[in-house]
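Subject: design request, 562 residues
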């Protein structure tokens, strides 16, 4: 019996220990078929067991349905060039903040209790674990429209939820989407209203500050009218105008004085001629010449004094031009005094001359000439008095403007501070007022539902097929793993079995000629008993396996999906 030969006969009849080191011969196709025949049950049993387990797992695993919906950020109806609004990136940030609120513990507990989600888990597990399970089942992803550039108008969000019941999954997605839209739009309206109210309060405060500073600036201007730093240029210009007028008045007064002295001398000469009754004598001619020199001196003196008055309005007493002009005036006054003394001496000499024996009657032409000169002298006197009064007023005005110009630097710091505070307050008020107007328009758009809104793009879907589990893949993978495990088990048994299996093993390992072979003879009763045992074992396994698989299918189709 070849199958019963021990491995000790491999190439050494004596059975020494070295014979165990003989390598096995290479196997051919017939050997593999013979191995499969001998270990068929060890391959089929794990494969069938794996098939049963895979089917049970596949049909006891509850279905998972995924419902999804899309939301989109719609652009405002009014162009942003007219009413600027927040960008979509800000809207995305607000939605991300609301996502944390929706997926918070309280928000998810509210949905779980309102829709009676995870009833078994709620009974067996803490609420925190159930909330975490639901949070993992919810997915919120930002998406882009196909074929469009990632601009602001293409921003959208997709919400998905996985649950073992398709209708409940749809309800949960609808609840989450409605909550998102409600919180987003209401939060945007509340935020716009609160911003408007805040800016309104800020504008009122800025207006009060502006009015206070404007009042202080107005009081300062009224109290220092004409002495403000920004009026220095106009004061200087007006002072120059008055100085020019003052110089013109001084020139007129000088001319008036010279002309009056000349007329008075001519009048005296005419009266002397009329008194003497004849032409002027040599003494009269000399006296007239001296009078003309005196009038010239008086004229020059008046001009120099007017110039000195103008210089004193701009310079001090120690200025070189003022000192020089004063010295010239002193010299001219000495010359005038000398001429006055000479005229006085001439008048005394004229008075000592003997009077004519009898008066001479003046003719009508001389009387008319004397009357005209006296009238002209009176007119010059009136004009001189008028210009003298005007000169005093102009000097007072020039002095006032000089005091204004000198006092301007003293109040410049306070005026600059008030002006700076007013400019800053006005700029702040204008900026806040502009922001308030924009916020009020944005709030009006929110009320009209014409601003940037979050709307539902796709309604929550009702899934028709479960996304998991994939039962064909589970059964196929389980069967493949069972077959693989069976082959591994058969291979392990074959490696462990070192007996001679056929004539090729006997010829190779014994190196002896084989004359014939005798088949193994077994007891028929033992053979039949083994077959019955194998049959019963397989029948029982198949019955139990089919029953288990049928029960799992029945549970899935008639109990779980009801």
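Subject: RE: design request

Done. Sequence follows.
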């Amino acid at each position: 019996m070849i199958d019963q030969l021990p491995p000790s006969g491999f190439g050494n009849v004596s059975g020494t220990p070295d014979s165990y080191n003989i390598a096995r011969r290479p196997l051919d196709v017939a050997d593999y078929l013979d191995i499969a025949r001998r270990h068929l049950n060890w391959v089929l049993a794990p494969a069938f067991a794996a098939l049963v387990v895979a089917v049970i797992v596949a049909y006891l695993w509850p279905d998972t349905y995924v419902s999804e919906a899309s939301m989109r950020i719609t652009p405002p109806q009014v162009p942003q060039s007219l009413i600027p609004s927040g960008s979509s990136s800000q809207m995305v940030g607000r939605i991300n903040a609301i996502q944390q609120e929706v997926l918070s513990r309280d928000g998810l507990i509210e949905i779980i209790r309102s829709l009676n989600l995870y009833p078994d888990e709620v009974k067996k597990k803490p609420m925190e674990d159930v909330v975490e399970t639901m949070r993992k089942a919810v997915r919120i992803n930002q998406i882009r429209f196909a074929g469009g550039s990632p601009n602001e108008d293409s921003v959208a969000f997709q919400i998905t939820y996985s649950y073992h019941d398709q209708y409940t999954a749809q309800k949960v997605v609808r609840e989450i989407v409605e909550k998102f839209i409600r919180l987003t739009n209401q939060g945007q309206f509340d935020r716009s209203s609160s911003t408007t109210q805040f800016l309104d309060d800020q504008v009122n405060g800025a207006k009060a500050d502006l009015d206070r500073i404007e009042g202080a600036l107005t009081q300062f201007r009224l109290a220092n009218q004409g002495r403000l730093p920004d009026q220095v240029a106009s004061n200087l210009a007006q002072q120059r105008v008055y100085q020019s007028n003052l110089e013109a008045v001084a020139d007129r007064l000088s001319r008036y004085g010279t002309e009056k002295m000349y007329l008075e001398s001519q009048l005296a000469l005419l009266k002397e001629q009329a008194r003497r009754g004849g032409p002027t004598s040599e003494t009269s001619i000399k006296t007239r010449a001296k009078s003309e020199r005196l009038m010239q001196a008086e004229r020059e003196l008046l001009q120099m004094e007017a110039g000195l008055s103008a210089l004193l309005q701009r310079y001090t007493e120690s200025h070189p031009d003022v000192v020089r002009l004063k010295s010239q005036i002193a010299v001219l006054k000495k010359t005038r005094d000398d001429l006055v003394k000479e005229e006085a001496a001439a008048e005394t000499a004229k008075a000592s001359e003997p009077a004519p024996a009898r008066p001479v009657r003046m003719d009508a032409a001389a009387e008319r000439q004397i009357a005209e000169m006296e009238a002209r002298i009176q007119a010059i006197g009136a004009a001189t008095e008028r210009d003298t009064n005007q000169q005093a007023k102009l000097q007072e005005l020039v002095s006032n403007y000089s005091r204004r110009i000198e006092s301007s630097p003293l109040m410049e710091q306070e005026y600059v501070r008030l002006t700076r505070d007013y400019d800053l307050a006005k700029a702040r008020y204008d900026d806040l007022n502009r922001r308030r107007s924009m916020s009020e328009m944005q709030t009006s758009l929110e009320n009209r539902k014409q601003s940037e809104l979050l709307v539902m793009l796709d309604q929550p879907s009702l899934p028709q097929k479960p996304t998991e589990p994939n039962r064909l893949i589970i059964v196929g993978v389980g069967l493949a793993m069972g077959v693989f495990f069976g082959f591994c088990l058969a291979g392990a048994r074959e490696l462990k079995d070192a007996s001679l299996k056929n004539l090729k093993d006997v010829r190779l390992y014994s190196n002896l000629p084989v004359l014939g072979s005798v088949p193994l003879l077994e007891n028929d009763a033992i053979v039949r008993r083994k077959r019955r045992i194998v049959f019963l074992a397989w029948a029982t396994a198949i019955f139990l396996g089919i029953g288990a698989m049928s029960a799992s299918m029945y549970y899935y189709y008639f109990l779980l999906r009801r």
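Confidence is low (pLDDT under 50) at residues 1-20, 146-153, 278-283.
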